[in-house]
Amino acid sequence: MPNSLAAGHVPNPTLDAIDLVDWSLRNAGTSSSVPGLEEGGAEPWAFSQLKNIGQLKEVSKASRLCQVVISFLKACGLLGSLYFFICSLDILSSAFQLLGSKMAGEIFKDNVVLSNPVAGLVVGVLVTVLVQSSSTSSSIVVSMVASKLLTVQVSVPIIMGVNVGTSITSTLVSMAQSGDRDEFQRAFSGSAVHGIFNWLTVLVLLPLESATAALERLSELALGAASLQPGGQALYILKALTQPFTHFIIQLDSSMITSSATRNSTNSSLIKQWCGIRGKMPQGSSEDYGMFNPCTERNISASAEENKVPCHHLFVGSELTDLAVGFILLAGSLLVLCVCLVLLVKLLNSVLQGRIAQAVRTVINADFSFPFGWLSGYLAILAGAGLTFLLQSSSVFTAAIVPLMGVGVINLERAYPLFLGSNIGTTTTALLAALASPADMLLTAVQVALIHFFFNLAGILLWYLVPVLRLPIPLAKRFGELTAQYRWVAIIYLLFTFLLLPLAAFGLSLAGVLVLAAVGGPLVGLVLLIILVNVLQRHQPSWLPRCLRSWAWLPLWLHSLEPWDHLMTGCCPCRACSNSHTTSKVAHCYENPQVIASQQL
Questions:
Q1: pLDDT digits (tens, 9 = 90+) for 307-354
Q2: How many CB atoms lie within 10 A of CB 30?
Q3: What is the CA radius of gyration of the chain?
């Protein structure tokens, strides 16, 4: 070998040399999951190597006490970060409501547009993205149906869109883990599997519902079989813990959004100024009043205005507009959200090590032994539904699962049924809230909640009951690999799925059903054809004509992301979108075989 090097000849890199480079990079603390070395590197979905599982060493009492104190502080940090993470999600929803409430109300006013099922679906997605709350969007739909402004048939596609729009929260949360390639791949795949499931369910059930009104009829049968009485009380378990903090920051009058949609709106601010009247018990739930009880003794000699009890939050009496307050809350909540998420990930990585990590991963991802292994996924669905019911928010539950997937505690196969259970859990919460509605809105509210429930149940029957049809899992894995290699794809997905595509479909729907069908139909057909050809190219290329067995005859920018990657990474400041340092190191090794040869020496 020295003679060949002296003569200027470099030997071809062997697998041993590549393994040596990969081993040296891992020892240097870099990630080994690099595109191009996937077969020889670590599998991103495999659990990381356990730490601290060697022989136990004798430690002093002072060291043990120090370890106990550190563990206690880490546990407090985890709980505190989780608490403020949930509170920041609530305030983020309030910020979006302040920024987009009037627009959301205006979108719901055009009955001609909403009579188109595709337009109704798009409106549901856009409004839920604008207000960041599926509960608020659903309450608007219920109020409009009860006010005879919408029929139940028209409301069904909107409810489907609400179900799709709520998955944006977990996608936003996954973006905070983009610093580490493997963590980002796992976290983004987890958020994508939820959105893919919702979109696939819509693609099947929306045409079916438009042709047969199956969900509407099923909900009518369920209502006919039940004897409902108005009253009851919705449960707010998580809100009882978070409202003392969130209501100190901001309180909103959500009924103003509904009033805007039902054409009874005024120019009043959405920020609540008065929280009750002295001596008068609030109607329904007392959640609007937070930690302050307005039901104090009434002053009989005072006027009605003087008996009003003011709210107690930071923006009471502020001269700022709703738009300005919304931007302030948006910036603050995003900052707190990112800080809490980073702390959660760091603390989880610190706590979940060694035997503890192995125990937690084994318990969460455990399967029953044969022949009852199939029961594990259904128990996970029940667990997801129960936890979502306790948390009273599907967004909070899914947003909490995504970081756990990023650090490798929960795998995608187990997270998928948890997300499906979360979809069911949020409908049971809405059903209980509907039962607490006034008598004139009871049947309408319950029917909308039942439609939402049957929609998600049908999705589970479609995409989970038969293992071969669990398509969201492989699609999400492939999408996670793509976004890990080209991180800017995640931003494109976010903008395209939740903003650009819905806006384009909404704009076409304004031009009429014929225009929407003439433009959208060929595009959808082309996308489906491309997907079919790609599947056949991978599995059955002999079934295709020779010209379609490969896309090499197309320009490079039409069948590869490499040209787009050079463009995006060139435009990104400080190479924020470029590949990680590990990728550049390994690429340098391939471009310079002398490096590999020196490693062999």
A1: 677 888 888 888 888 888 888 998 898 888 888 878 887 787 777 665
A2: 17
A3: 27
Distance of alpha carbon 41 from alpha carbon 33, whole angstroms: 6
- Residue 16, classed as helix, strand or coil, is helix
In angstroms, the Cα distances linking 527 to 470, 479, 481 are 21, 16, 21
CA distance 306 to 299: 8
Selection from 83, 89, 101 nearest residue 169 by Cα: 89
Where do we find the tokens 């505690």?
A: 409
Q: What pLDDT shows up at residue 398?
A: 85
Q: So where are the chain's domains?
A: 68-273+318-510, 551-601
Nearest CA to 223 out of 444, 417, 440 is that of 444
Instruction: Please identify which residue in the block is written with the tokens 């989880």.
Output: 348
Please say whether the beta carbons of 219 and 447 come within 8 A: yes
DSSP letter assigned to residue 277: E
Strand partners, 277: 308
97 neighbors 133 (Cβ within 8 angstroms): yes
Residues 327, 94 contacting (CB under 8 angstroms): no
Cβ-based neighbours of 176, under 8 Å, separated by 6 or more: 337, 338, 341, 342, 345
CA-to-CA separations, 15 to 40, 485, 593, 596, in angstroms, rounded:
9, 23, 13, 10
| Residue bearing tokens 């690999």 | 481
CB 139 within 8 A of CB 97: no
Share of the chain above pLDDT 90, in %: 9
541: region left, alpha or beta (phi > 0 left; psi from -120 to 50 alpha)? alpha
The predicted model scores a pTM of: 0.72
Burial 287-315 (b: 16+ CB within 10 A, else e): ebbbebebeeeeeeeeeeeebebebebeb
Q: List all residues 6 or more positions away from 187 whose beta carbon is below 8 Å from its beta carbon.
A: 173, 174, 177, 402, 403, 405, 406
| 261 contacts 130 by C-beta, under 8 angstroms | no
470-523 pLDDT, tens digit per residue, is 999 998 998 889 998 898 888 898 888 888 888 888 888 777 778 888 888 888
Of 471, 477, 363, 384, give the one whose Cα is nearest residue 428: 384
Question: What local confidence, expressed as pLDDT, does residue 472 receive?
Answer: 92
Cis peptide before 371 (omega within 30 of 0): yes
**CA 247 – CA 290 distance, rounded (Å):** 6
Residue with tokens 């403020």, as numbered in its chain: 84
150 burial level (CB within 10 Å; 0-12, 13-18, 19+): buried
Q: Which residue type occupies 252?
A: L
Q: What is the dihedral of CA 357, 358, 362, 364, to 10 degrees?
A: 0
Q: What gap in Å lies between CA 254 and CA 591, rounded to an integer?
A: 60
Nearest to 284 by CA among 455, 442, 116, 78: 442
Residue 15: which region, alpha, beta or left (left: phi > 0; alpha: psi -120 to 50)? alpha
Cα separation of 494 and 313, whole Å? 33
Over the stretch 398-449, which tens digit does the pLDDT of each residue have? Answer: 888 888 888 888 889 889 999 999 999 888 777 777 776 677 777 888 888 8
